[in-house]
Amino acid sequence: MQKIEAKELLIKYRQGTASEEEKALLLNWVTQWGLEEETNLSEEDLLEERQLIWKGLPVKEPKIVPLRRWAVAASILLAVSVGGYFLLNRISMKVPAASVYRNDIAPGADKAILTLSDGRKVLLDNSAAGIVATEGNVAVKKTADGQISYVVTEGGSSSNTGFNTISTPAGGQYQVVLPDGTKVWLNASSSLKFPASFGNGRKVELQGEAYFEVVKNMKQHFFVNSGKQMVEVLGTHFNISGYKDEPALHTTLLEGSVKLSTDKGSRILVPGQQAILSDTDLELEKVNLDEVTAWKNGYFKFNGKDIRTIMREIARWYNVTVEYQGKITAETFDGRISRNRKLTEVLKVIESAGKVHFKVEGRRVTVMN
Asked: Residues 158-195: pLDDT tens digits?
C-alpha cells in the first residue's frame, strides 16, 4: 500500500465513504503493525487511527468479501507491496486480548555452512564475495549476490570425485549453482550433498526442502535421493519437501517431466502434479504451484492448512520452538504473508482470524485457543 493510498483510505473510512472491499482491506492493514513508514503518521497518531477503526467496527463477524473481489482490491491498492495480504475465512472483529509478546524475532536470512570433502567448513553468510575454497582443480566461488557456484580452474579437469554438503540452519536459506549449472534453492533446516564435479554422474542427496532448476543433459540424467524416494530427470523445474517432522514427502513438478521411484511403485509426473509419499501410500494430485513455491519467492502461503502445519513452517523460518496450550482448533486458514516480516507481525495477522492466540517468550511460541 503506497503512502498516499493508505492516507486516502483512512480519510474515506472517517467520512463513511469506504466501500466494502476497502473496509476489508483496511481491516487487514490495521492488524499489521510496524507500518508507520507507509503513512508518515507518528506512533501516537497511528495508534489513534487504529483505535478509531476498531471502535467503528462491529463486534460480530462481518460478511466476508468474496475472494475474487479481495484480489481486485488488493491489486488496486497495492497491498502486496507492504508484505502481502492474508485472506482469512473467518475474521474476528475483536483485538486479540490473550496475546503476550515479550520480545520479537527477526525473519530468517541467507545463511548456510558448506562442508568440503576433506571436512573443512565454510560459513557462507560471513564470507566475502570471491573464491571461498578450493578442492583440487575445482574452485568454490561466492558471487556478489550471495550465491555459491563451482568452477573448474584453468588447465584443470572435472575429475574431482569428492562430495560437498551445503546445510541451512533453522532461520536460514541459500542458493547454490552446482558444477553442471543446475540451480538449487535450499529452504530452512535443509541440506544438499553433491559431488564437487559431475564427471561420474549427476547424483545428489537432499534432506529437507529444495527447489531445483536442472540443466538439461541428454547424456547424463539428474538424480535426487531424498531418503524414501529417487527422482530422475533430464532437465526440469521441481520442488521436493521432505522434512522429517512432516507426515509425508511432497514432490511437485513445474516444468518438464520427472520419474519418481519408491518402494510403493514408480510414477511419471506432469507439470502441475504433486506426488505425496506417506508411510502407507503414494498418491498424485493437482496442486497450486504458487503455494508450493511461495517459500522460494519470499512468502508463506496457506491454502486450507491447519495451525499445526502453519506453525511447523514458522518454527523452521524463525528458529523457534512451538508449544500448544489447551484445545487447539482444527479449522484451516487461507492466505499469504511475506516471510520478511518479523515474527510478531506474522502472528498478529494469523490471530486476526480469532481462532488462536499466541505467547512469545524468548524463542518459544505458545499457541492458545
From this structure: 555 688 999 999 999 999 999 889 999 999 999 999 98
135, with CB counted inside 10 A (0-12, 13-18, 19+), is middle
Tell me which residue of 174, 200, 195, 187 sits closest to 243, measured CA to CA: 187
- Picking from 170, 121, 166, the residue whose alpha carbon sits closest to that of residue 148 is 166
Residues 315-337: tens digit of each pLDDT? 999 999 999 999 999 999 988 89
C-alpha cell of 258?
A: 520427472
Q: CATH 2.60.120.1440 in the chain, residues? A: 202-287
Across the strands, what pairs with 324? 367
Q: What is the pTM of this model?
A: 0.75
SS3 106: coil
Give the Cβ contact number of residue 331 at 10 Å: 12
With b for 16 or more beta-carbon neighbours within 10 A and e for fewer, the 57-94 pattern comes to: beeeeeeebeeeebeebbeebebeebbbbbbbeebbee
Outline which parts of the chain fall under CATH 3.55.50.30: 3-105+303-368
Q: Of the ranges 53-62, 91-100, 204-213, which one carries the lowest mean pLDDT score?
A: 53-62
**Phi, psi at residue 25, to the nearest 5°?**
-65, -40
Report residue 126's pLDDT band, with 50, 70 and 90 as the boundaries: confident
Residue 56 CA, chain-centre distance (Å), reads 35
C-alpha closest to that of 149 among 118, 125, 182, 120:
182
Backbone angles phi, psi at 137, to 5 degrees: -100, 15
| Alpha helical stretches, state H, the chain | 3-15, 20-30, 43-56, 67-77, 289-292, 307-318, 343-351
CATH (residue range 3-105+303-368)? 3.55.50.30
How many CA within 13 A on the CB side of residue 331? 14
202-287 to CATH, choices 2.40.30.260, 2.60.120.1440, 1.25.40.10, 2.60.120.10:
2.60.120.1440
